[in-house]
């Protein structure tokens, strides 16, 4: 499998890319390990951006420590997968947990690759880094909506977008509740805003 071609295909034809990814039928244990690895890479990129590049973190200091950031990333991604499956099924979808997990992991991998390119561009052409970062976010949303559409067998991108918005709201609420339990009400209120 050529992963770069699959990444490009994910942007050009996300429906076909989703079919390839779901067709791999990866085992649950492999997918959970991949989720942990993706969370680790995202944590490294976050810490790198704050500590070495000097970008300001939008989160309270408590959340910027690598271990806490990693834990939040793992919990957030897991909640997102559960929320996408649950919300999609409420709206008549039929995605399996493993399919959604594989697709969410792939979106994270593509976004991490774009973020690495943005950091490299920051050295030479800072404006390009900003454009790549914005493009990475938009590409991630675009891929996710199409992946939701394919995994739940919807025939409507609008319905898929509604599932994504509902799932995102569920994750924000879930992480806010978790933040309140761990760090007190002030931390939870700053995370939700």
Keywords:
193 residues, mainly alpha, 8 helices, globular
Provide a descriptive summary of the structure in words.
The protein is globular, with a radius of gyration of 17 Å. The chain has about 190 residues and is mostly helical. It has one domain (about 5-55, about 60-190). The longest helix has 28 residues, at about 95-125. It is built from 8 helices and no strands.
What is the terminal separation in angstroms?
41 Å
Could you list the spans in which at least 5 consecutive residues all have pLDDT below 50? none
Domain count: the total is: 1
Order of helices and strands: HHHHHHHH
The shape is globular
Please, what is the oligomeric state?
A: single chain
The number of helical elements comes to 8
Average residue-wise pLDDT: 88
Main beta sheet strand tally, sense and closure = none
| Helix percentage range | over 70%
Secondary structure: number of strands: 0
Strand percentage = under 5%
Structural class: mainly alpha
What integer value in Å does the Rg equal? 17 Å
Indicate the topology.
Elements: H1 3-12, H2 14-23, H3 28-51, H4 66-90, H5 97-124, H6 126-151, H7 157-183, H8 185-192
Briefly characterize the structure.
The chain is mainly α.
